[in-house]
C-alpha cells in the first residue's frame, strides 16, 4: 500500500517561469539566504549569500563543487571574509633570510608526487662495500641522484613547485637559492590546483616538459588574520576559495553551512525550485487525504496514516522554533492547497513561494523514505552470528539462532 | 605454552534426530527459511556479533552465505542447499523447506529409517517420472518464438524477492531488460555447439530502477578528467586493440632474496623505461588504435601513445579481462599479451567502435564488439540493500533462462505444482500402489501409505509456507491447485465469491470447481493431467518456475533428508 502511495505522488514541482538574469540572481541569493538562515552565520547571511551566488554562477557547465575551497583563519571578523579568485592555502615553511618575491606573474607550476629526501630509494636493500672509497662513492651517488632530480626540476623552468610528499631541507634550500617557491599544500588544495592550472601530478622528474607543467596568472603571498596564505590566480579556470576569518571555533566550523548554501544554489541552477518552509509536505499530505477518500475499504487507513506522518515535519519545525505547533498546523490546514508553509521569522504561516523561501525540487526524497520504511517493516527476524573468538563455544544448536521479532 | 590445551576426547552422539536439542534447532531453522519464502516472505537481517556488514535478504544464496552454522546436521542441510543453488541459482528455499518438512514428518511415523529411505526413493522416482512425462498437469512447454512464457518466468523470479522493493512498473521494466540481456548473450550463428555469452552487471546505486538499461559490449569506468583527456579518435572501421595482462608501469619486479649485480653506468629504471617505450613504438608502427592494460601504465608510455593518437586505458582490473579477451579476440585461442617483448601481429584483436557514455554520475568507455555475446547490464536501485538483492535476483533470472533453453519446460508456480503433485501421489498410492513398489518386496502397502502421506504433507506444508498473513489455504478437487483466501474472511459456502485465481494464475474461480481446506483430510482424487492449451493461452499472467531447478531441488531435498534420516552417529572433535 505504501509503495502505491509513494509512486504517483513522488514529485511536486512548481515550474518556475523563465527569468531574466537579474531576477535569477536575486532568486538564487534568496535561496542561499534561506539555506543560511538556520545556521550560526545567519547574521551575515546576506553577505555570504551574495558571495555564494557569485561563485556558483561563474563556475563552468559542470558546476563542480570541488573547484570551490574553504579555508579557516583565526582572528578577524566573519563579515570581512575575502573571496579569492583562485586557490589559497596556508603557507607552510620558508627559510629566514630568504626573501621570496611577494608575487610571481605567469609562473609555471610543477606538481610533483616525488620524495626528495636523502634516504635509500628502496627500503630493505643491502649494499656490500669493500673499501672506504666504495662507501664514499655510494654516498656521493645518493647526493648526485638527489641533485640530479633537483637540477631537472630547475631546468624545467618551473617557478613554483608543489609537492604531495614531504621534501627535505636540501631540496627546500636548493629551490630557495634559485628563487623558486616550493610548498606542500594539503591534498584537496593540490587536487584543485592540478585541475585549475591544467597540469598533471608527476611521479617522476625524468620528463618535465612544458605540457605537464601548469601555469597560472599570478602566485603570491598575503597575510589574512594571523596567518600567511599563498594564493594562485586562475581567472580562466573558474575556481574560488572562501577564507573564513573568525575568533570562535564554532564559527570556523561553519564551512559546512557555506557548503550547504553552495550545494543548494548549484542544485537550483540545475533543477527547478519548490516552496520551502515545509509547504511541500503539507501539500502532499493534502493530496493523500483527498486520494484516501476515493478508496473504499481499510486501505484508506494506511493512506491517512501516511498523510499524517508527512505532517510531522512541519510540526517538528515549529517545535524546534518554539512555536505552538498545533496552532500553526491548524492554520496550515485551513490554507491547504495554497502553498503555505511555516514562516519562522513571524511565528506564523505564509506563502513561501511568494516570499522566495525556495528549496530545490530534487531535494525532496519522500518516495525513498517510504520505501525504506517498507524494507524495515518487512524484516521480522534479526540473526546475530556468534562471536568468532577461540574461547566461546556455541551452547547447543538452538542457541545459534537468536530470533528477535520486531 | 599457555595456549596449549590437552586433547579432549571426541564426542559421539547416537541417533542424533531423537535429541530434543536437534529437533528444536531443525524447527528454528525451518521457521527461518519458511518465513522468507515467496513474494510476501519476510526479510532477515544478518549481522556479525562484532559489528560490520549487515545483510538484509530473503534469498537463500545470501542467507546461507552469511549464516554461521556449527551443528553437523544443519551443516549438511546448508551445504546441500548451497550446492544446489550454486548449480541452479533458484529454488534454494524450496529445497531447504521441503527437506526440513520431510525430516519432521517422517519422525512422526513409527517406521525404521531404512524403510522410509527406500520408500522416499520410490516416491521421488514417481515424482520425477510424472514431472518429466507428457501427461504432467503442471508442466508448460516454453516456445521461444514468443516472449510470453520467458517473461512470466523472469517476472516470477523478480516478484518472489521482496527486498528488491520493486513496483509493478519497475518489475515490468526489469523483466524486459533481463530478457533482452539474455537474448544479447545468444550467438547469432547458431550452428553446432552453442556457447552462451556473458552479461556483466554494472552497479549504479542511488538511481531510479527505471534508469537501468542494457548495452552490447563492455563498459569500462573512467574518471571524468581522464575521459576528457582521452578523446576517442574519429576513425571508420574497426579499431585494432592490444590487450595486456602484465604491468606496464616500469616497476622492477621483486627479486626476492637474490642479489642483483648492476654494472656501473647502467640504470635499471631507464632500461625498463626504454623497453616500455620500444614496446610503445612497436604498437604505433603496428597501427594499433587502442591499448588496454589490466594493470598500470607508465605515464611516459601513455604520453608516447597519445602523441601518436593511440588511446591508452589502464587499471582495468582482473574482473573485466576475461570478457575483454572474448570481445577483442581475433581468433579463438588468442590470449592477452603477457610480456614486454616483441609482439606478434596475431596477438592483436579488434573492436567495432569505442564511445564514451555517461550514466548518472559515472563515466564509461563503451567498447562495442564486432560480433559477440558479451553485454553490460546497468542496474540501478535506490540503496545498497535493494541493489544487492536486485543484482542477485537478476543473476538468478539469467541463469534460469539459460537452464530453460536447455530444457524448454516450466512448472506452474505459486504452490500449484506442490499441491497438484501431492494429490497425484495420494491418488497413485491409493489406487496403484503396486506400480510404485514394483518388485520391492521389502515394503508393504501400509508402509507406503504412511510414508506417502508424510511426503504429501511435506509438499503441502511447503505450499502453505507461501502464505504469511494468516490467510486460509484451499485446494480444488479437479486440478489440485493452490488457492488462498484472506484472513478473517467470513466462512462462506460459496468459495467462488471469495476466491479469484489460483496460485499460478491459470484458473479462475468462475469455473465450476469445488474446494476444500488443504489441511483437511479428504478422499484422494485424480487431479486432471494434460494442461489444456487454451487455458495456458487465455490467462494473462502466469507464475511459473524453471523445471530443471525445481526438479533438481526436489531431488536434493529428498536425498539430503534420506542422508540425515540415515545418520546413526555424529562424532565431533572438540579441539
Automatic annotation (TrEMBL), chain A:
Similarity comment text for this entry: Belongs to the TCP-1 chaperonin family.
Entry protein name: CCT-eta
Recorded GO CC terms: cytoplasm
One of the record's GO molecular function terms: ATP binding
InterPro entries: Chaperone_TCP-1 (IPR017998), Cpn60/GroEL/TCP-1 (IPR002423), GroEL-like_apical_dom_sf (IPR027409), GROEL-like_equatorial_sf (IPR027413), TCP-1-like_intermed_sf (IPR027410)
Taxonomy, superkingdom: Eukaryota
Compartments where located: Cytoplasm
Species of origin: Otolemur garnettii
Keywords: ATP-binding, Chaperone, Cytoplasm, Nucleotide-binding
Coiled coil: none
UniProtKB/TrEMBL annotation, chain B:
Domain of life the protein comes from: Eukaryota
A GO MF label: ATP binding
Signal peptide: none
GO biological process, any: detection of mechanical stimulus involved in sensory perception of sound
Subcellular location(s) per record: Cytoplasm, Cytoskeleton, Microtubule organizing center, Centrosome; Cytoplasm, Cytosol; Nucleus
Protein keywords: ATP-binding, Chaperone, Cytoplasm, Cytoskeleton, Nucleotide-binding, Nucleus
InterPro entries linked: Cpn60/GroEL/TCP-1, GroEL-like_apical_dom_sf, GROEL-like_equatorial_sf, MKKS, TCP-1-like_intermed_sf
Pfam families assigned: Cpn60_TCP1
GO cellular component: centrosome; cytosol; kinociliary basal body; motile cilium; nucleus
Subunit structure: Component of a complex composed at least of MKKS, BBS10, BBS12, TCP1, CCT2, CCT3, CCT4, CCT5 and CCT8. Interacts with STUB1. Interacts with BBS2 (via coiled coil domain). Interacts with CCDC28B. Interacts with BBS12. Interacts with SMARCC1, a component of the SWI/SNF complexes; the interaction takes place predominantly in the cytoplasm and may modulate SMARCC1 location. Interacts with DLEC1.
Stated role: Probable molecular chaperone that assists the folding of proteins upon ATP hydrolysis. Plays a role in the assembly of BBSome, a complex involved in ciliogenesis regulating transports vesicles to the cilia. May play a role in protein processing in limb, cardiac and reproductive system development. May play a role in cytokinesis.
Family: Belongs to the TCP-1 chaperonin family.
Protein name per its UniProtKB record: Molecular chaperone MKKS
Species whose genome carries this gene: Otolemur garnettii (Small-eared galago)
